[in-house]
Amino acid sequence: MYKIAVFVSGRGSNLKAILDSSQQDGNKIEVVCVVGDKIDCLAFEIAHINSIKTYSVSNVTKENYLAYSELITNLRNLKVDLIVLAGFLKKIPDELIEQFENRIINIHPALLPSFGGKGMYGINVHRAVFEKSVQVAGATIHFVDKIYDNGKIIAQECVNISDVETPEDIAERVLKIEHQILPMVIGKFSENKVVVKNNRVYLLD
Ligand code: GRF
């Protein structure tokens, strides 16, 4: 079983897409924990319904707070193979990146390297794309390094947005793509079919 930890901050539709796809695929992927930067969020509810452990790295209350050093120990004990950031808004601390080198991926709702970086999340991204009158939008999955939205790109998928009327229209189209490519890429990792060669990332058939 390939074990993943999913980091979330809100709604959790990508978490749900991962769980649904794994179920359809004979449960070869196991979400062993969900980590959030909130005390609670909709994604935690999805985790609870599916009997998945949740950890909060929010420091709003001392009671729930889990320091990253403790989280790393838990992730190691759970034998996590891959960390998937699916809407996680906080910057990942260097110590976690160092411990899970090349084993943390993020989904970004735009075609990087455009429309990425600090502050570029959620509807902010789609507003910026809308205001530039960009005609093609999409989603990107990339490795996480110490700089926001900077790691090597693993997969991208685009969608025509020439007829959209609002940033929300863009968000809706891009989210559909996210729900397809994220489970696909996780599947490739689980089959050892993600290869970095000559500075590029290849997904093998
Ligand atoms: C997605 O658009 C993802 O690309 C971005 O945050 C959003 C999270 O959505 N990083 P959800 O919580 O998975 O529904």
Describe this structure in words.
- It is built from 6 helices and 9 strands, in the order E-H-E-H-E-H-E-H-E-H-E-E-H-E-E.
- The chain is an alpha/beta fold and 205 residues long.
- The chain has one domain (2-112, 139-158, 172-203): Formyl transferase, N-terminal domain (Rossmann fold), CATH 3.40.50.170.
- The strands form 2 sheets. It has a 7-stranded mixed β-sheet, covered by helices on one side. It has a two-stranded antiparallel sheet with strand order 8-9.
- A hairpin with a 2-residue loop joins strand 8 (194-197) and strand 9 (200-203).
- Helix 1 crosses helix 6 (167-190) and helix 5 crosses helix 6 (167-190).
- The two termini are 20 Å apart.
- The model has no long low-confidence stretch (mean pLDDT 95).
- The protein binds 5-O-phosphono-beta-D-ribofuranosylamine.
- 5-O-phosphono-beta-D-ribofuranosylamine is lined by residues 8, 10-14, 43, 86-87, 107-109, 121-122, 175, 178.
